[in-house]
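We modelled the chain as a single entity of 602 amino acids. Its sequence is:
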Amino acid sequence: MNHSPYPLPASLFPLADSLTSGIVLHRGDKVLFANKAMARLTGYAADELIHMDFWAFFPDPVRNTIRDRGRARLKGEHPTARYETMITTRAGEDRWVELVTSTEDVQGLRTILCSFIDVTERKRAEAAQKQVQQLLAQIIHSDPVATLVINAKHVVTHWNQACELITGVPANEVLGTRHQWKAFYPSERPIMADLIISADQTTLDALYQSKKLSASSVIGGAYEAEDFFPQMGEHGRWLFFTAAPLRNALGEVIGAIETLQDITARKKAEHELLRMHADLEAKVAQRTEQLQQAKISLEQDIVRREEAEAELLKRYTELTALNCQLQETQQQLVQSEKMASIGQLAAGVAHEINNPIGYVNSNIRSLKSYVNDILGLVEAYELRESLLPADQIQSIKQAKKAMDFEFLKEDVTQLLAESEEGTERVRKIVQDLRDFSRSETTQDWQAVDLRVGLDSTLNIASNEIKYRAEVKREYADIPLVECLPSQLNQVFMNLFVNAAQAMPEERRGTITVRTGMNSPEQVWVEVADDGKGIPQEIIDKVFDPFFTTKPVGKGTGLGLSLSYGIIQKHQGQITVSSTPGQGTTFRITLPAHRPTPAGANP
């Protein structure tokens, strides 16, 4: 089909239509010929193209330039024949094309032949790649870690500010060059990034094996090492550097990235540590020499062996006495801590005792008055009721009514019940206090129900607890446990008092006491509170002797330490878990039966 209103050679059309690039003929104004590829490119039908002004394909910014070049070519000049430009399709879309123009003689007239090759996708890809490169450059430039990048030709493409600062070399001195080595070495040699690109493992091992070279466990082909660079800074710098390959979508290495970290301070600390170690070894050697001299002197004094043996025996005797004294002191310390706990609770115990005694005494005084009145009434009945006239009997009845005799009879029973309850409470408190404070040296191992000891100890500690927390008991069935009850009661007391004192001032808390068993042979007790909690940095120290978080004068720092020793003595475990602001839980695990002492017959 002839796509031109002008007579053109018929052989031109099939040949042009077989091409994939757009072909257009013109003589400076209307299109003379356009092939099918041009129609597909522009979106115009073939007939529409023939009637169009050739320059209408081009948007305003480039139209005049294209027109000037075409007219110059028609005049016989030779402007640029190949260049990239934009055209506008029928749908208004701008597309990039590579335009190739030449001048041909068609039927004796100078005619311009234009070839349009669509390069829009390539241009878009180039723009996207440029945008990615710009984004990568921004990321690297703003990275606080010193970073440099070289391409596959070992040319520096990125050198961020942190790299300038750590090496002292401005970016403008190395960008676009292969002079990256100048920042590190006095003469030319490859840096690690160069060897990563070259995949030169032999040279990499030769140059960096002594510099703590190691392969990355995260990135394939990446390595790290450290070295000293004397030309950096005033006194040189130690650097830890990592180099990794950069790959394209096909996995091909297109460059390498290297990061630098200044580890000079760490190295100085290591060197100082080595120096101190050397000094220590020298002192050890000196001390060894002194010990050697002492040994020689001791050998020389062997002649005085009898005297030395006597002295040794004397010292052994003293040591034995000292050991006994130490055991006694430890026993006293345990008892002292117990007494300290009881001393803390003395005011509360007194309060608990005084309350029942107070109302018992008051009730007894009232009871005495009521009984006297009743006795007086009984006497009046006995003397007058059978002898006196009816009117006097009536007066006696009035007297009974005046003193509310019926109420007295009822109230005396209630008073007696209250008095009995009060005296029972006094007896219980005193009994619990006596059981708790009994010296452990007088106790034998006994099979007891731990829940009884918990209740007894809670009763003693109630005054310390009741104003600060509510106690919840969650007891599960547990077997009897062979133990020293008074010692375990002391452990419970320490945990209850600590839990109460852990509560914040602004609210009442909750102390939960639980029991349970892991197996028939192992039971556990938990004391949990919802108080202030223990910071993680000190939780490992709570069982250390004399360690306390309480204010001066509020604790000895021995309670939990002694508790730990008591549980160890019972072949058990005591553990603690805590979350600051949420509370603390102590868990005691004990064997149900006393373990057989080492060497004893089962």
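As a brief sanity check on the tokenised model: The chain has 16 helices and 18 strands. The CA atoms of residues 533 and 579 lie 5 Å apart.
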